[in-house]
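Many introductory courses stop at the sequence. We go one step further.
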Amino acid sequence: MLEKILVDLNRVDGVTGSIILKDIFKKPEIEAIRMPKGIKSESIVEAVGSVVSVFNKVGDKMGTGKIENIMANYEGGKVLAFVKDDKALVAVADRSANLGLMKAFMTRLLEDI
């Protein structure tokens, strides 16, 4: 089921890879992954876990509650991460990807993880 979620997500125009992480606030681990060759999954786990934890702490300090998602634009692409309970659904996309479409699609998929 989780593999199917990632296969569906990777069909969104511009999405080049995706990953589902568990225990995101403790010791993040890969639950499912569909990334292109050459991307080191261990570094993604560590980086996403750190960013989610930091932004979750910011939300606590500001009184805005738990983190729900993070969107980032880079020179070479985009990263979108959604958090639900102790899991994260992360997508990597090229610069042409439509973040609004990715967000809508990921919100729907998040219900199944």
